[in-house]
Design goal:
8 helices; 0% strand
């Protein structure tokens, strides 16, 4: 799952300035603002969330989630910085669709392994355990903020519209993997 997620980010989303949902999307946007590697940013975003969420998530789930986050982050930076893999397509439509499929498959496989790719999933579990909000509502809200931030970071509505597709399509792939 981590390999698919890393491929989606490195080969499709990041080089085409498209954000996906959750931590990878936040890290892609921050990468263009502060010029740090995406994998490093993913760890920086997830670390405080894991520390706060340890009690809510449970030990076993948290340990598997830490493994998935570390593996995904290392693979993203390995593919981008060391192997210097280039975008498979600079066509925005193709990059959005294939990146979305890769990310959706990756997150679906990670979730099937009873772990999380971090970010919005952790926040959603924490918030839903302490409020009336459902995890899906929290994730939707976070992803909506990422779409809005995409428009601000890239100073155009078009990357935000592509990012909206980059959030919707993985959800459908994820549903297919988890429920058939």
């Amino acid at each position: 799952g981590s390999v698919f997620l890393a491929f989606g980010v490195v080969l499709f989303f990041a080089p085409n300035r498209i954000a996906t949902g959750g931590t990878p999307g936040m890290a892609i946007l921050l990468h263009y603002v502060v010029a740090l590697p995406i994998g490093v940013l993913m760890i920086a975003i997830n670390l405080p969330l894991l520390l706060v969420g340890w009690k809510v998530l449970g030990r076993s789930f948290t340990i598997r989630t830490i493994g998935a986050i570390l593996l995904t982050s290392v693979l993203i930076d390995l593919f981008a910085k060391i192997l210097k893999l280039q975008a498979l397509s600079n066509n925005t439509l193709l990059a959005t669709l294939y990146g979305s499929i890769a990310v959706g498959m990756g997150v679906g496989l990670v979730l099937r392994g009873n772990a999380s790719a971090g970010g919005s999933t952790i926040i959603a579990r924490i918030v839903s355990s302490r409020s009336h909000l459902k995890p899906g509502q929290v994730i939707f809200g976070i992803d909506l903020l990422i779409v809005l931030a995409t428009a601000v970071v890239f100073r155009s509505i078009e990357p935000a519209l592509w990012s909206l597709i980059g959030i919707y399509v993985p959800t459908k792939c994820l549903d297919t993997i988890l429920t058939g």
